[in-house]
Amino acid sequence: MRLDRQLRRCAMAEERVMNWGRWGKEDQLGAANLLTPERMAAAARLVKKGKLYSLSSPIREDKVPRMDIRPGNQHFVRIFGGPQQQSYAEVADDTLLIGCHGTSTHIDALCHYWTEGTMYNGFPAKKYVEGFGATRLGITNLKGIFGRGVLLDVAGLKGKPHLEGACVITPEDLEACCQRQGTRIEQGDVVLFRTGWNTVYYSQGFDVYNHSQPGLEIEAGLWLAKKDVCAVGADNSAIGVRDKKRAPRRNVHDVFLQDAGIYLIEMMDLEQLAADKVYEFLFVAAPLMVTGGTGSSLNPLAIV
């Protein structure tokens, strides 16, 4: 890499795309403010075939991707009723214990991440986040996402079923994806990028999946934030590159959640969408209304 390019990268890594105060000093919705009625109506017009894709991984106790620093989900089923309880019918009832972050497909609320004690829009974390939940920036502020979605198939760009562990995705990679696919990123979009890394869990196991992961470098995060998108999603566990041998200068969560108020959707399954070469679609997702929640399990949908 030429020296001038290295210097530009170093300067860019220190940039910040700030949306604090853009929608008012008390704003708790962040980049979801970009989902205007006009944009939602335009996104609805993308549906031509009536075909639906679920972009969620399954929720179960094991044999599903999860981060090594998170406990597995637990699922209990109770069956009651029937003759023993003098009833002609029987009922099966579920009890689920789900760790929101790192155990299944989920969305991060804007209160999920902060640095130096300050969350999005300048809210002090110590004042508004405690053991019983967040009183600012919680997931219930986001009623749902209904907008234009785009897929950037980075693994497909590289001609691989999946990127290698710790592979860094650059702005140039994202630009090349757009050019290859004929994809245009617009204000308020939900941008999903495919690494193929979720398939590594099934083919190579838990340890390989968690040792390192491909993802965005900070400059790629800034590139997307400057596009003024609403949300960013991926099939890895934390959007950014994960390399246990080398800590990043900054976390892309700084760029998205803290600075720009852009929502993050992690641990998605984008395989079928990429296989069908679906690069533009109506994106729909609604979080659970967990009072004070720092995020929510999610079943995102792409509809064409």
Give a description of the structure.
- The longest helix has 11 residues, at about 5-15.
- The chain has ten helices and 17 strands.
- Helix 8 packs parallel to helix 9 (about 250-260).
- With about 300 residues, the chain is an alpha/beta fold.
- A nine-stranded mixed sheet has the order 1-17-15-7-9-12-14-4-16.
- Helix content is about 25%, strand content about 20%.
- The protein is globular and about 65 Å long.
- The protein has a single domain, classed as Putative cyclase (Glucose Oxidase, domain 1).
Number of helices: 10
Side by side, the strands of the main sheet go 1-17-15-7-9-12-14-4-16
Number of strands: 17
* Sheet with the most strands, sense and barrel status: 9 strands, mixed
The rounded distance between the terminal residues' Cα atoms is 40 Å
What oligomeric assembly is this protein in?
A: single chain
Gyration radius from CA atoms, angstroms: 20 Å
Instruction: Give the strand content.
Output: 15-25%
H-E order: HHEEEEHEEEHEHEHHEEHEEHEHEEE
Average residue pLDDT: 91
Shape: globular
- How much helical structure, as a percent, in the residues? 10-25%
Which CATH class?
Alpha Beta
Structurally, how many domains make up the residues? 1
User: Can you tell me the CATH topology?
Assistant: Glucose Oxidase, domain 1
Spans with pLDDT under 50 lasting ≥5 residues? none
CATH 4th-level superfamily: Putative cyclase
Write the CATH architecture name.
3-Layer(bba) Sandwich
Structural class: alpha/beta
